[in-house]
Amino acid sequence: MSDSTPLLSHSDKPPGPKLPPRSLDDTIERCIGGFGWFQIFQAILVSLAWVFDAQQTFISIFTDAQPTWHCTDESVCNSFSNICQLPKSAWSWDWPAHTSIISEWGHECSTSFIIGLPASSSFMGCLFGGLVLATLADSSLGRKNMLLFSCLMMSSSSIFTVFSPNIWIYSVLRFINGFGRATVSTCALVLSTELVGKRWRGQVGVIGFFCFTLGFISLPVMAYVNRASSWRSLYLWISVPTIVYCILVHFLVHESPRWLFVKGRKEEAITTLKSMAQTASALTMSFSNVLIEQESGDCNVDIYSSIRILVKKRWAAQRLAALMVTGFGIGMVYYGMPLGLGNISVNLYLSVTLNALSELPASLITFLLIGKINRKESLLGFTILSGVCSVLCVVMGRVWPSLQIAMELISFFSACTAFNMALIYTLELFPTCVRNSAISMVRQALVFGGVFSPLLVAAGRKNNLISFGVFGMAIGICGLPLIGLPETRGGTFCDTMDEEEHKHKAAIPTLA
């Protein structure tokens, strides 16, 4: 008879009806599969990074705004005058000049390239930072340290921005800020979901989306309170709390036990799991043996090995390519729709408010349904719905303008929900050793889709077909590669490429 001695056979007590788990995933599920107060605290604390990410993303709306002005000499000036053709003595700003970089540095008549340079620099920094920093969370730094590094870089560059003497230095610091901010949300998402069991993985991931919306909504409140103050004070308001947040994360947040095990740091993984275990002490004694017996698998040997692994494995490259194509289409609508509101014959302030608020139900629906709906089908459905409604924006604008804003809101809401689902689907499709790199690449595709949105919006001022029409066709077509991907709802997290590849082959139906 083959040896079937339980792991705790040395104990005087007879073996119970339940054997200790023999796989790493089962062991982790037994230890952290519940959702106690400690895990709730960890998940919320990690997800708060999204608040600061949102504030840094949209702060230029207020700091780089074109201020309003009024005439002081009505003999040569009126409300329809071009400010650039008037003498400086004929007009004045409605608010103090230091409320915006445009009025403080006298760029009211500068070219659109110079005025938009700071925001573009932040955007390009985010793209570049995502490519350079994404692999560090999988290779050397880990999830927690990468999150700390990104938040510190983001907040410190924001503090230095306060001392900018001109728009050129300001733009350089905005680039550095975007570079550091590139991996904040992805690290927070991956770390928070790896600290809980699979039952709560989707709900915990959605907490970050709520926090991002909270940060977006809080920014106008802070800007309104500081509306007569210098634009520099707004940077301090969002930077100092981030420093405090980094201190809390350093002392209170655990590193992902899955990543620790994959990197061969088994003792640290055991210590982390014991501190988080929701079960009896006897189990915490048994999973130590299970972890030590497991093969960790040298999944990352240098900072760029995760990218090479993703490209080398055909099934992984196909998954990543399909998700990045879909992400490109989603990003084009997600970033383009709010920019195109000026092309719709509806009050701009009302439409912007409605768009901002539509992110809340998108996050709420994702939170409530994430455990009940299939990832692939729902993501494909939302991309198609967003595409159809975006095209209908063009039609309604010509035959029924009052419904145009309704179609725009449905399209943006669907893109927001697809944005959330795409990130959750990505983290479930890839193993621990490359998970952060994969989700970062998908997020970069989302951001890259936003690069083309301002150009299409500008070209579509006279013809919405160029903007909303292209948006709709892009997200609809880009969602089609999802058809060939596997479903992940209710599945387990794999930690190595070999595990994921074995599961992938087992899921392929055998041909008769």
From TrEMBL:
Coiled coil: none annotated. It is a multi-pass membrane protein. Keywords: Membrane, Transmembrane, Transmembrane helix. It is found in: Membrane. Its main location: membrane. Residues 42-490 form the Major facilitator superfamily (MFS) profile domain. InterPro entries: MFS_dom, MFS_sugar_transport-like, MFS_trans_sf. Residues 1-22 are annotated as: Disordered. Pfam families: Sugar_tr. The chain crosses the membrane at residues 31-52, 113-134, 146-169, 204-222, 234-253, 320-337, 349-371, 378-397, 409-430, 442-459, 465-483. PANTHER family: SOLUTE CARRIER FAMILY 22 MEMBER. This is Major facilitator superfamily (MFS) profile domain-containing protein. It comes from Hibiscus sabdariffa.
